[in-house]
Amino acid sequence: xxxxxxxxxxxxxxxxxxxxLDVVPLDVPKATPLLSVDGQITDxxxxxxxxxxxxxxxxxxAPPPPVTGATLTLEDDQGRRDVLVEELPGYYRGSGTxxxxxxxxxxxxxxxxxxxxxxxxxxxxxxxxxxxxIQFKEKxxxxxxxxxxxxxxxxxxxxxxxxxxxxxxxxxxxxKPGDLIVSSDELVDGRxxxxxxxxxxxxxxGDRIDVELLSIPRDxxxxxxxxxxxxxxxxxxxxxxxxxxxxxxxxxxxxGKTAVGYFAGYTVRTASATVN
Amino acid sequence: xxxxxxxxxxxxxxxxxxxxxxxxxxxAASPPTGRATxxxxxxxxxxxxxxxxxxxxxxxxxxxxxGAGATxxxxxxxxxxxxxxxxxxxxxYVGYAPxxxxxxLTASLVHSVKLSTKGVETAEVVVTGKVPDQNVRSxxxxxxxxxxxxxxxxxxxxxxADLVRAVQLLPGVSTVGExxxxxxxxxxxxxxxxxxxxxxxxxxxxxxxxxFSVFNPDAVKDVKLVKGGIxxxxxxxxxxxxxxxxKDGNSQRLSANGGIGLVSSRxxxxxxxxxxxxxxxxxxxxxxADLFLKAVPEQKDNQAYFYDLSAKANYTLGEQDRxxxxxxxxRDVFKFGKVFQNSWGNQTGTLRWNHVFNSRLFMNVTALASxxxxxxxxxxxxxxxxWKSDITDYSAKADFEFFRNPQSVVRxxxxxxxxxxxxxxxxxxxxxxxxxxxxxxxxxGTEWAAYLDEERSFGPVxxxxxxxxxxxxxxxxxxxxxxxxxxxxxxLTPVNPQTYGxxxxxxxxxxxxxxxxxxxxxxxxxxxxxxxxxxxxxxxLISNTTAATPxxxxxxxxxxxxxxxxxxxxxxxxxxFKNNAYETSVEVFGKRMDNQIDYxxxxxxxxxxxxxxxxxxxxxxxxxxxFYIKKNEGRLTGWLSYTLSRSERQIDGINQNNWxxxxxxxxxxxxLVGVYAVSDRLSLSSTFNYSTGVATTVxxxxxxxxxxxxxxxxxxxxxxxxxxxxxxxxxxxTLQQKPHPNRRWQGSWVFSIYNVYARRNAFGIYxxxxxxNPTRTEAVRLSVFGSLLPSxxxxxxx
Lengths: 276, 798
Description:
- The complex is a heterodimer of chains A (276) and B (798).
- With 276 residues, chain A is mainly beta.
- Chain A has helices at 2-14, 218-231; strands at 20-23, 35-42, 49-54, 56-57, 71-76, 81-83, 85-88, 91-93, 105-112, 115-122, 131-137, 146-154, 162-169, 172-173, 181-184, 192-197, 208-216, 248-250, 259-274.
- The longest helix of chain A is centred in the C-terminal third of the chain and has 14 residues, at 218-231.
- Chain B is mostly beta strands.
- Chain B has a single domain, classed as TonB-dependent receptor, beta-barrel domain (Maltoporin, Chain A, Beta Barrel).
- The radius of gyration of chain B is 27 Å and the shape is globular.
- The interface between A and B is large, with 86 and 95 residues.
- β4 (56-57) of chain A pairs antiparallel with β44 of chain B, so a sheet runs across the interface.
- Chain A: Keywords: Signal.
- Chain A: This is DUF4249 domain-containing protein.
- Chain A: Residues 1-20 form the signal peptide.
């Protein structure tokens, strides 16, 4: 619902009392690097993949330093076990003995730098996408004239489903901070999700929109939702910056060597449409 | 049940005991005929403004030969009991010419007195004490009073004279940021101020997200801020009482005043209903930025405006009885075509009955209702929804004031407040909407209170006001409620569902709240004062953002959310110089609070059915020193206030359980206000503000997750950084139209410049990816105003 606050803040600008933003130099405290995890297992028949790196000073724009030589083990709830192989520095991939399946539960163990970390996740049920529809819109309050893609699909009855939408235009993921879209079914449980707009700026003939609907676990939803808040946290109604949760825990409780990031299980359903 | 009866019993005793003592000491129906010792006569009545008939709150009557005096209450009523004899009574009120009368008192006398203003308005004292030396002489500590004229003389943002912004210039008061809703008193949260408008609580004091306050300055007569030694008659919030009294309305003749400004226009009309018996006042204002929006084709479907209407009527039924009816209705409206709409506002209504039992016993009975609500939604389409939330209270109370003798005034009373809270209810607007209905658990609660208070003077040197307030809060919500389990600092899981309903309250909390203030005179013009108060707060504003938003909801204490308590000690030294030309004071305070509410990182406070799973509770403490120098006389008047303070909290689950600075903690807060009367027609005014930046958290590191850069701070520390300091200079000039004896219309122009040296004060510092180069991260400063803001306002009255 933070989006509404952003809209409200936009209301201020329309009152002619526009506020202003400018970039300022700032000294931030130094911190010891922590393990950062970005990994997933999906129901798409591909093995799990995990990228390990270290956190870096906030204003350091260099690529994150990879964590190499770690031992990553993935186990599922049916006793299968997979040891991930480092294919590129910091990029680890399973051999395929453990594959994602709806209803499956997974535990990833990471051993690096003398520490052991564990992350648990699951793959939940998923609805399907009916279709993506292209519509032409005249110029109006929230549309510039042009073509727009809309999502149509059911939501499963029963509260407790969580989703992420990944939208690609001509094969390129919309991936600015404002493009991270997650939602819970609390307000839409069992309803038909129709006419959900997918692109902000109008499309032109020949443009192709691909949508991935990810059914994600509850805790991962909160991880992403907290991330949405933190990476779009500017304005009159911003919150004080706060850490995003993680499911990667040091097995030695109380250790200062904590981790950040997430190892997530999810389904992927796709659909696409092209403007003719 | 037993406990409740006990408490009610105590409350009844509190009220009954003084009634009994009143009965004993009341004069018989016939005038007392000289018992040799202790024969007394009482002079009582109302003190009013001669031109408008407005009650003069805090005006005084004094008998020099006896060294005895009395102060008019909130309705202008005074009562002074003296032995029979011939005395010279002096009636005074700041800014008014004193009246002296010599009266032969053989029997009690009802005598109302009208005082006239001193002419040149520009030479007015800005923040008024009640009478010369009042700041030194009264037992009150931590009290500041503003009159409506003072609010209008201070340079105003965009020319909008603003009550809350004026209050923020007083010592001990600060704000979390420019244009943030509400104000913070002595290290307390914005929800810890009891804001009363004609006794009705106001739950959100802001228009336009906090840029302006909801109070129309034309409708306001008197404003009193009490931040320490809060009397027993008031309770329910931890940190302060802001008591706003609306004008009664001119009982002598039809009059009006208004203004045309950049942001809004105002008009207030007052007139007698029956001359000297009753009058009314209606004041309205509306912003008109949206009228300009209509001129822009792209914006023609958009609306953004606020308005408010204040109205009051009073009628004298007889010598003893007077009725007051007052109401307030305010609204902010935002609409973006058919895409989004939002509105919010307060409504209050107060009916009061003053009854004078006899010259020494005054009663006021109040029935009131207050509501804050907001609505938000998308009117049509598949995204269509309508979301509503409100807090509503109905309240009744009776307050008695017994003027025992010039040395003692006893006040007692009882009240009950019935609350309902609807934290959020969403309904789809049409069938094809993707939304379903969601109604968060509605809650109900009752807050009972009874109090007894005595203000007593032991000669000219020592006086004391002490009291006890007994309160009981019952959460009477019906439904299923949970306990919460898990790791503190992370989202907790609801467990152990239990049904609550009639006969099984979701929480019952009795409390005793002792209050004390005392004064010890060191000399004619200096005194030492001491104050202690215990305050309890049963309702809480759930707000996780730096500045509160209009969507924040109030919630009552439940099984899990315990009432907040505060104990505060204050000590003050008051000294006036040069025959009261200068008033100075130094006050130090220390405050300890418990059950303070904070939030886990990333808490979602809106439409959250398991909100209590994201709340954390702990201790708070605040301490500081306030320095105040005020110049009352001469062409140049004004004040300097400086506050050095600290406000912190310790909450298990946050900041590794260590103490951390509150988001509104500011080490230094300084305000300098000057008004210079150049001539009878021209006055110049200026304010300068300086304050330490608010506390916030800055990340020390970052990581990349799926191509997005996420900020991180090792060790989950909170508020490890200060936003840069805030400072600002404002100027204003007020030019009165040349008065003309045959014309009632009197106009004036106010020209002002806000933020004269155009400083980009940081409201906050935020962190984000660069828009063009997403791997680069940057810190950005948000300034609510990026430049200086000039304005011109035309005001008139007739």
